[in-house]
Design goal:
Chain B: Pfam families: GatB_N (PF02934), GatB_Yqey (PF02637). The complex is a heterotrimer of chains A (99), B (482) and C (497). Chain A is 36% helix and 9% strand. Chain A is α+β, with helices and mostly antiparallel strands and 99 residues long. In chain A, a hairpin with a 2-residue loop joins β2 and β3. Chain A starts with a helix and ends with a strand. Chain B is built from 15 helices and 18 strands. In chain B, strands 1, 3, 7, 8, 9, 12, 13, 14, 15 and 16 form a ten-stranded mixed beta sheet that branches. In chain B, strands 6-5-17 form a three-stranded antiparallel beta sheet, with no helix packed on it. Chain B is α+β, with helices and mostly antiparallel strands and 482 residues long. The chains are: A alpha+beta (99), B alpha+beta (482), C alpha/beta (497).
């Protein structure tokens, strides 16, 4: 199941990555090089096997911990926005969002 | 469901409702969910997706999901999974929304309501927990948009129906019933202006018996009025398109209240590929049966149950019971007045009559009624013991409502509305009237009943309306030996 | 005792901690000594950020606590953090251009816990971009003393890579620019560089240490751990780093902090060490094999029994890992969009274009490859065949370990098929790097604790590490086995400089 140049274009857009033609070409070769090694994995019979999400679930139940409903975060806007590329009146600025 | 046709087309509507949950803190962070704060002052490191931050689930949001599931008669999943819905948008800080995909927490269930006397039932597919996004402010910042992430991470339940609705009226009735339920059980404040209760309608049309038509999704209908308008417009638009031989393209559309029209949003071409996968930051959400039972135990009586009780305990007609359970406050007001006065039906009549009329006029709820349940009960009491007539009662009510007075008996005194039950005084008036109207007396004796009524009229007039009509009648007959 | 006899940088964490507690040396003096060494050996490219003022302030505070008799177990001991942990006092880059100049408003939980134990932070250490790499050749950040990205050099031979992704951590400890360092291990990023640089490192059971404040690479695999010269030092540090973080990390386990030093000296009599035949196949270089075999013979002398076992899906762990980790990474790295923090392209036409150019400029080649791979395996129509299948095979791999642990208490083998290769040797062949991870990936996928222990030297005098893998929560047992080996050998005491 080798990738095509179209796949690279589609995925690059999904991932919001601008790739130059030469990058796309290299990407295609390298990804197909890797996916060749994936074929043996796809061939494994996994019928009846549950996917493993949290590794420790291999030996014991792991379930979501819940916290109390307390609003205790102070306003840290200044510190939180210190590394923001563009801020005005506390708002993050981005190129116009068109709906 | 018997579908009414529009120009030979059957309308098919499904709903997706986003209800903001009434929690103090966000679903995955400890930031406040309060509405209207300064931009980004309630967006903490987790909400902003700062590097290294991780989500930690709010127990109360899960409790809300359980409540809703119980109210809708749904299955509450003992294990449900949080998944990542991946897409890029400025109001989505992580580049993915934490939601539930394959296994939602609330499964199935239904919403029932009456529409023009007919009982309708809309089946639910699911309700899942997810986080709200921030807001893009389009007011111009030199050609840019401003992003406020205060709302990001506010807990939501997205409630999804089957395409069971067949008209805009039915759709609105469903939305109103759902709105009533979520506010009734207290999981959502229901404020549509602030976006606490947002409805998206999936609308399509088809010729009867045909497969489902292509649907268009109308986003963020933030009032019941807009909802009706938007859906009606969309139905007309789709039918015209089809009649003009154009196929409907699946799209997301926005309703513009000013023009009353819907327009397609700039479509995200990759919207279809959200690359959902279980969120590795969040183990499975496990809800023990004991928890569900605890929630069931301290949950408020549901409206349908309460209405049945009103019929049972107060002997109200089903119609009254249904109207009185439109809101918790209304029901509480009724019960207080009914119990204090011991006159449930009279209390119901006053609430659905005088009170509702006034409230509708100023388009406000029972909580802003100027007459308290206790005052109403006192008033009803005075009608019952014959102290005042119904007409007098209305004057007393008006005085209470306008705030000119607060004590029922005081108003009756001040306005001299007490019915005259002292027979001595009444006899005197009766005698005077007989003496002053020999003609009528003659006519009556000659068998003309109308003359009798004329004399009663005179008596009431002379007593300034305070005479108890029954008492007056009895006395006059006795005097005239009729 | 003065700071030059023996030199402070030759002291173990344990020795340094007691010297500080007994006030033979001050925390300030110690910090200054290591800062000087960090400057002196800038050419190695280990450090990417120093903040002398902050470090010395922490040191003075440590001295005050020592004077006040409120010293913690690590009071005044300088450590350096992999630049994947966010810190208030130092910028955090995760080795990426995307985060150059990023200032975190909070400290990672692990950083906080070590500080509470009294540790003084020397600075931030180089690593592969977003911890993606096996040679530390993927860092886009200029090390201290450089004005452009430069290779991190293996102190045993500057032409060789230090391993990755925690390369800077391994170099700093091996070159004694820090008594110990933190690292993170997703597919071997603590164990492999530890092996390549001849130091000791341990990755605990997944969920032992909080992930809060670690810039996420692959959420279901990332684990923090200590890198130091000896197992004894690792035990002290790991005890301070672990423990539940209920308020911040939903994947941290509800297990109380432990004293991982408690059984360091236990006898190894009768210890059953499983030897997976898959770890000793043709792919294993002879020099590495020789060193590992020698270490295993030491264990037999110490009373352990070697038990042949099989981990039949070892080879599958490469495709499984390189599907799961990139899938999670592609999603974890979506937050780097030029809106809230980090790099934003200067020139773009609209929002879409800003995203694409920002991410094209901010991410390096390997990160882009993994984002692309991850987005692909999660995309419509491929999820079941790739991601879901990988998660299922992952469970089979984890189950293989449970079967193996029926017959043994620990598993031992090589950390990597070869010693550290030459800088640039793998050139433009990412697959070569992937294949070199084969022995560390299985334990990562299973979430098991694993460590690297110096086991001698191979071709060109480059260090060889012995990998020890324990069952879930068996860190103390692992450290005990490593400590006993280190009492019988002196590989961990050898120094390159």
């Amino acid at each position: 199941m080798a990738l095509t140049p179209q796949d690279i274009g589609r995925i690059a857009h999904l991932a919001r990555l601008e790739l130059s033609p030469s990058e796309s070409e290299r990407m295609l070769t390298q990804l197909n090089g890797f996916f060749a090694t994936v074929e043996q994995m796809r061939a494994v019979d996994t019928s009846g096997i549950e996917p493993l999400a949290h590794p420790v679930a291999t030996i014991q139940d792991v379930q979501l911990r819940l916290r109390d409903d307390v609003a205790s975060e102070p306003n840290q806007r200044e510190a939180n926005q210190k590394s923001a590329p563009a801020v005005e009146r506390g708002l993050f600025l981005v190129p116009k969002v068109i709906e | 469901m018997s579908a009414k046709l529009i120009h030979g087309y059957e309308v098919v509507i499904g709903f997706e409702t986003h209800a903001q949950l009434a929690t103090k803190s966000k679903i995955f962070s400890r930031a406040s969910t309060a509405f209207g704060a300064e931009p980004n002052t309630q967006a903490c490191a987790v909400d902003l997706a700062l590097p290294g931050t991780l989500p930690v689930m709010n127990r109360e949001a899960v409790a809300c999901a359980i409540k809703l599931g119980l109210a809708l008669g749904s299955h509450i999943a003992p294990v449900s999974i949080f998944a990542r819905k991946n897409y890029f948008y400025p109001d989505l800080p992580k580049g993915y929304q934490i939601s539930q995909f394959e296994i939602p927490v609330v499964q199935g269930g239904e919403v029932s309501f009456f529409l023009e006397g007919e009982k309708k039932t809309v089946r639910l597919v699911r309700a899942h927990l997810e986080e709200d996004a921030g807001k893009s402010l389009h007011e111009d910042f030199l050609g840019q948009s401003g992003i406020d992430l205060n709302r990001a991470g506010t807990p939501l339940l997205e409630i999804v129906t089957e395409p069971d609705m067949r008209s805009s009226e039915e759709a609105v009735a469903y939305a109103k019933e759902l709105h009533k339920l979520v506010t009734w059980i207290g999981v959502c404040d229901g404020n549509m202006q602030e976006g606490s209760f947002r409805c998206d309608a999936n609308v399509s049309v088809r010729k009867p018996g045909q497969p489902l038509g292509t649907r268009r999704e109308i986003k963020n209908l933030n009032s019941f009025k807009n909802m009706q308008q938007a859906i009606d417009y969309e139905i007309r638009w789709q039918i015209e398109e089809i009649e003009d031989g154009r196929a409907i393209q699946q799209a997301t559309v926005l309703f513009n209240p000013d023009t009353g029209e819907t327009r397609a949003m700039r479509t995200k071409e990759d919207a279809a590929d959200y690359r959902y996968f279980p969120d590795p930051d969040l183990p499975p959400l496990v809800i023990a049966p004991e928890w569900v039972e605890r929630v069931r135990a301290d949950m408020a009586e549901l409206p349908r149950v309460m209405a049945a009780r009103f019929v049972q305990d107060y002997g109200l007609p089903e119609y009254d019971a249904t109207l009185l359970t439109q809101s918790k406050a209304m029901a509480a007001y009724f019960e207080a007045a009914a119990q204090a006065s011991g006159q449930a039906k009279l209390a119901s009549n006053w609430i659905m009559g005088e009170i509702s009329r006034r409230l509708n006029a100023q388009d406000s709820g029972i909580e802003s009624a100027a007459v308290s349940a206790a005052q109403l009960a006192a008033l009803i009491g005075r009608i019952q013991d014959g102290t005042i007539s119904n007409n007098a009662a209305r004057q007393v009510f008006e005085a209470l409502w306008s705030g000119e007075a607060s004590d029922v008996d005081a108003v009756i005194e001040a306005k001299g509305l007490k019915q005259m039950n002292d027979s001595g005084a009444l006899e005197k008036i009766v005698d005077e009237v007989i003496a002053a109207n020999p003609g009528n007396v003659e006519q009556f004796k000659a068998g003309k009943d109308k003359a009798f009524n004329a004399l009663i009229g005179q008596i009431m007039k002379a007593s300034k309306g305070k005479a108890n009509p029954q008492q007056a009648t009895d006395l006059l007959r006795a005097r005239l030996g009729g | 005792m003065t700071s030059s006899n023996p030199p402070l940088h030759d002291l173990s964490v344990a020795a340094l901690a007691s010297a500080l507690r007994e006030r033979h040396v001050s925390a300030l003096e110690t910090a200054q000594h290591f800062l000087a060494r960090a400057q002196q050996h800038q050419a190695l490219g280990a450090y990417v950020a120093l903040n002398e003022e902050a470090t010395l302030a922490q040191a003075r505070a440590a001295d005050a606590r020592i004077a006040a008799g409120t010293a913690g177990v690590l009071e005044g001991v300088p450590i350096a953090h992999k630049d994947i942990f966010v810190t208030r006092d130092f910028p955090t880059t995760a080795g990426s251009k995307m985060l150059v100049g990023y200032q975190s408003p909070f400290d990672a939980t692990v950083v906080t816990q070590l500080a509470q134990a009294g540790a003084v932070t020397l600075g931030k250490l180089n690593c592969d971009e977003f911890a993606m790499g096996s040679a530390n050749e993927n860092s886009a950040v200029a090390p201290v003393g450089f004005d452009a990205p430069a290779p991190v050099r293996n102190p045993w031979n500057h032409d060789h890579v230090p391993g990755g992704s925690s390369g800077g951590s391994a170099v700093a400890v091996a070159a004694r620019l820090a008594p110990a360092a933190t690292g993170t291990d997703t597919g071997g990023s603590i164990r492999q560089p530890a092996s390549f640089c001849g130091i000791t490192g341990i990755k605990p059971t997944y969920g032992r240490a909080s992930r809060y404040g670690m810039v996420a690479y692959a959420s279901s695999l990332d684990q923090a751990g200590p890198m130091a010269r000896s197992a004894e030092d690792c035990a002290i540090l790991l005890s301070a780093m672990c423990g539940p973080d209920p308020d911040r990390d939903s994947t941290s386990l509800d297990m109380p902090a432990e004293d991982f030093s408690r059984s360091l000296n236990d006898s190894l009599d009768g210890l059953r060490i499983g030897i997976p035949k898959e770890f000793f196949g043709d792919g294993l270089a002879s020099d590495v094999r020789a060193a590992v075999d020698a270490a295993l013979r030491e264990y037999e002398k110490l009373g352990a029994k070697l038990v042949p076992i099989s981990l039949p899906r070892t080879e599958l762990s490469i495709p499984v890992y390189y599907i799961i980790a990139p899938a999670e990474a592609s999603s974890n790295l979506s937050r780097f969009d030029g809106v809230k923090f980090g790099h934003r392209a200067n020139n773009f036409t609209d929002l879409e274009d800003m995203y694409k150019k920002t991410r094209a400029e901010g991410f390096g080649a390997e990160v882009k490859r993994r984002i692309m791979t991850g987005a692909y395996v999660l995309s419509h129509g491929y999820y079941d065949a790739y991601y879901l299948q990988a998660q299922k095979v992952r469970r089979m791999i984890a189950n293989d370990f449970q079967n193996a642990f029926q017959d043994c208490d620990l598993i031992a083998g090589p950390v990597a098929p070869t010693v550290a290769w030459k800088i640039g040797e793998h050139g433009n062949d990412p697959l070569a790097d992937y294949l070199a991870d084969i022995f560390t990936l299985p334990a990562s996928l299973a979430g098991l604790p694993g460590m690297s222990v110096p086991a001698g030297f191979g071709a060109g005098g480059m260090p060889v590490g012995l990998q020890l893998i324990g069952n879930y929560f068996a860190e103390a047992r692992l450290l005990n086995a490593a400590h006993r080996l280190q009492q019988a050998t002196d590989f961990h005491l050898r120094t390159p400089l």
